Amino acid sequence: SIDGQRLWSSLMAMAEIGATPNGGSNRLALTQEDAAGRHLLIEWCEEIGCQVRVDGVGNLFIRRPGKRNDLKPVATGSHLDTQPKGGRFDGVLGVLAGLEVFRSLHDHNVVTERPLELIVWTNEEGSRFAPAMVASGTYAGVFAVEETLARQDANGVTFGQALEETGFKGSLPIGEPQLASFFELHIEQGPVLEEEELAIGVVTGVQGMRWFDLTIHGNAAHAGTTPMSYRQDALAAAARLIDRLYTHAVYDTSGDTKVTFGCLEIDTPSRNVIPANVSLTVDLRHVVDEQLDILEERLRSELADITGTFGVAVNLERTWASPVVKFDEQCVAALERAAKCHGIPYRRMMSGAGHDAVYVSRVAPTAMLFIPCRDGISHNEAEYSTPEHCALGAQTLCDALIENANS
Amino acid sequence: SIDGQRLWSSLMAMAEIGATPNGGSNRLALTQEDAAGRHLLIEWCEEIGCQVRVDGVGNLFIRRPGKRNDLKPVATGSHLDTQPKGGRFDGVLGVLAGLEVFRSLHDHNVVTERPLELIVWTNEEGSRFAPAMVASGTYAGVFAVEETLARQDANGVTFGQALEETGFKGSLPIGEPQLASFFELHIEQGPVLEEEELAIGVVTGVQGMRWFDLTIHGNAAHAGTTPMSYRQDALAAAARLIDRLYTHAVYDTSGDTKVTFGCLEIDTPSRNVIPANVSLTVDLRHVVDEQLDILEERLRSELADITGTFGVAVNLERTWASPVVKFDEQCVAALERAAKCHGIPYRRMMSGAGHDAVYVSRVAPTAMLFIPCRDGISHNEAEYSTPEHCALGAQTLCDALIENANS
Ligand SMILES: NC(=O)NCCC(=O)O
Ligand SMILES: NC(=O)NCCC(=O)O
């Protein structure tokens, strides 16, 4: 069985890299902090005899050999990058739980039939380079490599440049190695497990999500002299849109509609100037693809409405669409068996967040498991999961990996 | 009579300093561009024998001696600083029209009884250092000198540091010289004169205005996993507030209520993070002080409302309140006589914008005159007034100055 205390120590050690004032971590994808986190992990893995390979978009593949190395590996992993003010568990737990499984097997001199593979996917968060899960998506063939390398951050630095600068452009061909199966442990990032006092969520799928870049173009004018009826106020138009969509989501009593405007910027802000140009991002989610279509239509019709009302022009670009995902039933069942066998209270559930498992599920049998996090809070420095829940998650993961690697 | 073509040439020459791609000017207060504009003006004034003095907050006092230099001067002027994407006329016209009056008097060897004073007030726009008209307000004793010098721009640079860096911290005591009267020519910055096909507006007063700094504090959380009912979305709360206040202003059929949110910033924006902290600026205006009180109460009650609805905390700071101003009736009448005498079609009107004349009117008899600007647009690179209107404005100003300086 795994060592919960050792797992906790590695989590806390990793959190030191890019530590933020309020107890979180800042390791935006492919920054020096992200690179330092990766180097620490590689050091730990090499200590127990694992071999590290890096593919062309910086994904790390860390192998623990089995008895039958001609067979495809059973894989686990997640990501080490964080939000700009992120927590210490989002992504990191899935990676370090995999390390803890490897360490425990090492301690007990266990060699599985199939090899095991611990994977660190690059730029999962999508905060530096949009969209999220871009490198697992590239591995799975959803995004072309050249397209991924050309993606730019807010300062115009490309993914490719950032890979070179951090030394994580590897030579392993994209799509290799193929996997027998993939299991990802993650914190829930929502309130359900905590509320229902469950220690494990067995994740059966992931809701659909769509990202948009939106610009609204009005006209700059004087705040004091311009009659309200003459204004083309891009910010007032944006505010109407945000309020309408937000209210629409709040009034969906099923709770399945989610609308977030995460970024908003005025091009040349000045207190006494009516904002001329506003750019914002839109994140729409739903557990049913058809409902997501309807939600997107709603966005478009509200946009048409503000165009008329505020005399503004709008430009909406859909930059990402990730359909609803259903995970592999056998992988789901394996996780369920592991939880049951330890008597851990669990439930089946859908994920509200995107995860690398979403794209990996296109090329290998995949499932995920969640542990609770305090107040359901994530993407926040205050993110927290207890050492006990982390250990239970890692133990469940360990059992499912061993079962799959030996069958 | 003044030389309209020469006035136009000086306007175009000044516009070269800090010229922006779309035909405007960027000479934010006390930047190198602002300093370069001032040096050009000083050069022009010294060529015709004027003497330049600078006070402790960078206001320039440029004197053309009269026959009775023991008498208080009759003054004119405005400002040379601009919005970040400002026009070529806002402020500049009032300064260069004064220069043109001096040049014309010089050409014709006219010496007035009283001396004349051309004044350039520092940081009128309020875009770099809030509030607006801060240096004319300091001259008039409304703001303490130390307070003005300590005001900071968005990067934390103080007004005092910027004065030292540009070399415009002068030794003339604040409040000197006292003025016999003050006349300010400005573009209207609104649509009224153009619509009514009038060449001159004789300004009888200025509406009241209040500036606020507002912060809204919610909680960062994951865009995909956080149920709508759990959110404390600071941006959605801001959007509700903006929409409510904007709509309130639009529905005031008198057209006298004006509401502008010029700046809005999310502290750590990320596409898939619910915004935790949003800071914004509020600009409220009305022609009646009691109505402005009611408008401010409305702002406070809408804020109380979003606090409850969105579970956010708010902090509202009123940083500036400029009450409704009534200009001096004799100065107004002098401008009216000058317009009439040239047969220029004019009307009396209130100003929607703040001007240095607002504060000067507290310590000297003051009035203003406006000329039309295209489509009423100002605080925009596209701002435009015709050479003919500029000349008519300068001529009217010239007549009023001479009449006052000789009586
Ligand atoms: N797990 C996670 O936070 N992924 C980022 C992608 C998303 O926004 O869902
Ligand atoms: N004239 C002018 O634009 N002044 C700035 C102060 C204001 O916002 O009214």
Helix-strand category of chain A: alpha/beta
What hetero molecules are in the model?
N-(aminocarbonyl)-beta-alanine
**Which percent range describes the beta-strand content of chain A?**
15-25%
Question: How widely separated are the two ends of chain A?
Answer: 19 Å
- Low-confidence stretches of chain A are none
Quaternary state of this entry equals: homodimer
Spatial shape of chain A: elongated
- Radius of gyration of chain A, rounded? 22 Å
The greatest interface between two protein chains, and residues involved on each side, is: A-B, 73 and 73 residues
Fraction in helix of chain A: 25-40%
Overall pLDDT confidence of chain A? 98
SSE pattern of chain A, N- to C-terminal: HHEEEHEHHHEHEEHEEEHEEHEHEH
Per DSSP, the total helix count of chain A is 12
Give the number of DSSP strands of chain A: 14
Largest β-sheet summary of chain A: 9 strands, mixed
Domain Peptidase M20 dimerisation (chains A, B): 205-305
Family (chains A, B): Belongs to the peptidase M20 family.
Protein name (chains A, B): M20 family metallo-hydrolase
Keywords (chains A, B): Hydrolase
